[in-house]
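The passage that follows is intended for readers who have already worked through the single-chain material. We present the inputs for a multi-component assembly, then the predicted structure in tokenized form, and finally a short commentary. You are encouraged to pause after the input and sketch how you expect the pieces to fit together before reading on.
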Amino acid sequence: HQQTNSNGEKIPVIGASMLSLQSEFVVNLKDAMGAHAKEKNVELIVNDAQRTAEKQVQQVETFISQKVDAIILNPCEVEASSPAIAKAKAAGIPIINVNSETSATPDGFVGSKDEQAGEIAMEQIAKLLGEKGNVVMIDGYMGQAAQIKRAIGAKNILTKYPDIRILAEQTAEWDRAKAMSLMENWIQSYGNKINAVFAHNDEMGMGALQALEQAKLKDKVIVVSIDAIADALQAVKDGRLDATVFQDAKGQGTGAIDMALQLIKKQPLENNAIFIPFQLVTKENVEGYMKK
Amino acid sequence: MIAGKLKQGSNIISRYGIFIAFIVLCILLSVATPHFLTGQNLLIILRQVSVNGILAIGVTFVIIAGGIDLSLGSVVALTGVVAAGYAHPNTYPLIVPLLIGLFTGVGVGLINGLVITLGKVAPFIVTLGMMTMARGLALVWSDGRPVSNLSPAFNFIGGGDWLYIPVPILLFVLVVVVSYILLNNTTIGRYIYAVGGNEQAAKASGIRVNAVKLFAYIICGGLAALAGIVLASRITTGQPNAGIAYELDAIAAVVIGGTSLMGGRGTVTGTVVGVLIIGIINNGLDLLNVSSYYQQIIKGVIIIGAVLLDRRNAR
Amino acid sequence: MIAGKLKQGSNIISRYGIFIAFIVLCILLSVATPHFLTGQNLLIILRQVSVNGILAIGVTFVIIAGGIDLSLGSVVALTGVVAAGYAHPNTYPLIVPLLIGLFTGVGVGLINGLVITLGKVAPFIVTLGMMTMARGLALVWSDGRPVSNLSPAFNFIGGGDWLYIPVPILLFVLVVVVSYILLNNTTIGRYIYAVGGNEQAAKASGIRVNAVKLFAYIICGGLAALAGIVLASRITTGQPNAGIAYELDAIAAVVIGGTSLMGGRGTVTGTVVGVLIIGIINNGLDLLNVSSYYQQIIKGVIIIGAVLLDRRNAR
Amino acid sequence: MTSFAFMNKNYLLRVQHLSKSFPGVKALDDIHLDIEAGKVHAVMGENGAGKSTLMKILIGMMAPDSGSIFFKGENTSFRSVHDAIKAGFSMIHQELLPFPDLTVAENIYMGRYPVIFPGWVNRRKLNADAQQLINRLGLSVKANRKMKTLRIAEMQMVEIAKAISNNAALMIMDEPTSAISQKEVDTLFAIIKNLTASGVAVIYISHKMDEVLQIADTVTVLRDGKCIVTRAASELNKDSLISMIVGRPIDIIFDKKHFERGEILLSVRDLSGNGFREVSFDVYAGEILGVAGLMGAGRTEIMRALFGLDEIRSGTIYFKGNPVKIKSPDVAMALGIGFISEDRKETGLVLTSTVKKNITLGALNLCSHNYIIDKKKEAIIADEQILRFKIKTTGRNQVINFLSGGNQQKVVLAKVLLRDPQVIIFDEPTRGIDIGAKAEIYRMMTELAAIGKAIIMISSELPEVLGMSDRILVVRNGKITGEMKGEEATQEKIMHFAMV
Ligand SMILES: Nc1ncnc2c1ncn2[C@@H]1O[C@H](COP(=O)(O)OP(=O)(O)OP(=O)(O)O)[C@@H](O)[C@H]1O
Ligand SMILES: Nc1ncnc2c1ncn2[C@@H]1O[C@H](COP(=O)(O)OP(=O)(O)OP(=O)(O)O)[C@@H](O)[C@H]1O
Ligand SMILES: [Mg+2]
Ligand SMILES: [Mg+2]
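Having made your guess, compare it with the prediction:
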């Protein structure tokens, strides 16, 4: 069944289970992996776990029964996706995590720490606020790893700034329309008391931004969010969004494929945990990110 | 005769039970927070409910006709990305994305209706399948990415004002008025009630049941498309993952408004009240800054409670 | 007599229509990929469907009794986090989290049932409210964080084997067998069908309709709890956001299996086939490496197609 | 109204070689039928003979397997009811087909609303026309009332109004009088006379011999899906008709014997509830207590309350001298009360279920042990009941919905009597039942009384009340207005108490 390349060698097959292909960042990540896999002449099977850890475990089981050569896991959850790691290891198939961590240790890791994103965003807010003011926080879908970690990161920073207060915190489930409604409602109850908005992703950040603009409050309120999706970068460039936090999909994707190939070829890894740091994107440096 | 009068009396109460629940809720919120009962906030609530409102009115047709439509949320996403694709600045005139979007929604409604009537498959399963399919199509069409950079004209639909009133509100009101007339004053509207109330009898009365059902699904699809366009315009992008589970809020509004899921019974005004109840719960809980977790619990309690109050009065 | 045989014959075809769809699907997948028809893969499919299977069997009771349960997915999350909370290593014996989890699910079912029967509120709206409430409770209970670090004994339920067969499969089979007997061979099972078929007539036949409905919702809640425990154990953590939209897959399986959403009609075997159809679609499309977007489209088509085939044969 | 008088020589409708089979039954077998304009053509036959099936084919609700239908000389076979109605057919169906949440006016004109311009309903005209029609039928109901607030008999009259409103050339009436009392029957007959005078052809189906002989010009008898005979009504009398239908003569229908009256089994004191007040009466073992009254008098409501189906507002029920609280039917049944409802579709049967399961539903204790059903025993019991009540079905596992109306009624009887109750309430027990089966039911009632059961029989058929009852109560406006011994009762006496 397995294909061979022109040299008659077996083409390695990598199975990837992705967090959600309805998320723009993950789509970018997938595309980066796909492009690099093509370059390296590897067959890449991509499954969409649709944010369900159980599905992710199932998909890894299916990869195992398909006898793929390596598995790339873009975990849905820290703990809940961990059984997938154990299963792959038990089957002797190398598995690496891309983008985020699980509690079980895989054979390799390429990605970032979501806490860091929250830290960078909140640090920027603190800076822009002059270390003083009221922040509202728009959470991702409650209970999901990214939501929990981004919130933790942000709150870690706030311990340093006693004069910055979280006025309200609410989920908008990663959804732009929901964030917009939430922001509209907050404007009603808090009005001018809001000095800054931290949204767990750019979609929600954009929603909040639009609500503020409609209420003609944008120039008084700072908005920072995470992911650096195209819309957000454009908004930063236009001076609407104050900052976003860039996560290097391309770096993570190519890194993961390379690491998987090394493991397939049983080459030793000089570093089995590559951390690709988040980067702050502001009007000053946005141009550089828009090309990426 | 007296029995008849009595019956009618109790009908009136049962009809207004949910209105009472609505008013009670409004009073409670006004007492709880001064920010609730302000003209501006009420306008915001109306704008916020307009997408769900348009969807709920659409599915009211289908539910009265004895069906259900679970594909609404996905159709919102699909029509949103499709319309947005033709709404970039300096490409097509505004009418193009609008018509293509509406056409997409109508097409989905038509397919739902055809499979349900000719294929004789349960509406639940057909529209559940369509929910998955339309979502897939939206993702394929947009390659999983938001379709942004839309023309100001397009964005006016969701974000603009006309005579100081937000356009989505105007559209919602228009939909309500037209639907009210359609259901109450036209023959096709009355046939929708008949088909939902007793399909056998409708057939025996010479009503072309399949045509009536098709009509209901097409209206529903078309209104879902309108909602999709309004939403895309409101958030200035076509999102392939927009509208997830919107159908549940829409159906909840319809049921809260007293429409029976068994078909044959229901009103547009009821649905409007249902939509407003859900809207003020969402708004009010945000205003009160109730924690996300408790918001969900309270929302569930209020929805059941409102309907319970309604039923209590009906007895 | 011959006439009777004939009638039964056509019943058999209509009954087996979905089986035929199932077998056709299996053959297609076996031809399409060599990985499908392997012992290991079939075992994987069975393990994968066991959570949805247990849920679907539970909701079969409710649907036959003429109701619906939309709270399943949230109950899965709630019972998962609650059970996990008592399942840390070296705290309580295994029986404690199991009983507390089951008790939670039964409690939710009981509340659903009581509001539906005594409050006379439509099951759709009650369980929709409960869907929101149970999710909120799960988040409150777990403070929005996964409950992890569970004992090996607890994790055995979802991850362990017994006589080479994964425990979730054994549990699923047990649930199927017991439910089959309950629905087919016991008086309460017969009453469930009667209540769903014609509530008035059931009442006039001396059946305590409310008690029967309560029973159905309690069974459903209890099985949702079992599914929640199996899931938490399988992913070795109680996840407050687990099980989102699981109710839709469960209900889809039931309807694909020929159970009528109008109540009064349906079988456990049908539900099992429905569950397997959904399971092999998910598994097969992954095996074939169909892109996730197209997967959704194809899945929708297959689900509608399978039911369509079934209905065609029924005529 | 159009006149078809000139077509009298030709047939308005001709049916030739019509056949229809369902899985397991040949419902119609090479049927011929010729219908003349301006005449009433009765179609008679036992339950399940194929009458309703034939009519459903004529109106386009079902397709025949073979055969042809000529309407006004043209070969027609309507593919939908829509076409048939447009061509000038209308039909009163055997089963009520109401739209419960729509108004009476909307029910009547459904599918044919008056419009201001196409598509726009003219409500004023709709209500006015409907009200006029209702008044003409002597019904005191407002046209804008919701259909679901009507009583069964009123709904039946609305169905009649609906059929008439179509100005049809051919009207099919499938048992239009099974749920209405004599007064309404008279109104209906007057209307039929009017219709035929203006050239409308009427196909009339009924199990009531007197009615048919009174109204019909021609009678066709079906048996087992075959045309047995077509005759002018003037050549027939009751006995010849009966023997044609059943295939043998049935001598006495009311095989009434009086038995020694035993203890008081059930007594009711000052019972009030929805639709009745301060009702008191006793029922003795071994007697048949007839309950007469006009439609909507509240008889059904009293019995429903007694059986625990409706709420009791005040008053006491004594069972064998002991006061009892009957909150729900299971309590009533445990005491030994059985209730055969007048509305088999609503409260009688689970239509999606089988004959067997319906029969045993109320008495699963007879064939179960520790809640586990003994299926063999259940099958035996079901078969016994099918035999005992001569239920025409393809088998015990046939779905009830596919049984003919009369046979469905027999299943209700079988189900209730299976529990062997001591007090049995029969609410319109012979509604839609054929003549042979009627005799059977009367015989059964007599037998039950003979072994000491108490029987309450609500009936709107006065001959039945007079022929069967030991004692008769008359109900008017929710109150008992008269009581008399069976042998002293006359139609006049009953009507005196029943009317104001
Ligand atoms: N849809 C159906 N499927 C299967 N069998 C049917 C169906 N409809 C009618 N039958 C059968 O056809 C036969 C004729 O039924 P039909 O309803 O025409 O009888 P009928 O003469 O009207 O009897 P009744 O006097 O009881 O109304 C019966 O045996 C009945 O069980
Ligand atoms: N609002 C209603 N909704 C549904 N059913 C109703 C309503 N009102 C009356 N009915 C039903 O109509 C039936 C007849 O009512 P009622 O008992 O008053 O008449 P009756 O004296 O039995 O006369 P008959 O049966 O001859 O019409 C009963 O079964 C009753 O339950
Ligand atoms: Mg008939
Ligand atoms: Mg009655």
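Commentary: Chain A touches chain B at residues 21-24, 27, 139, 142, 168-171, 175-177, 180-182, 184-186, 188-189, 203, 206-207, 210, 214, 229-231, 234 (CB under 8 Å). Residues D 148-149, 151-153, 181, 275, 293, 295-301, 304, 342-343, 460 surround adenosine-5'-triphosphate (ligand 2) (CB under 6 Å). How closely did your sketch match?
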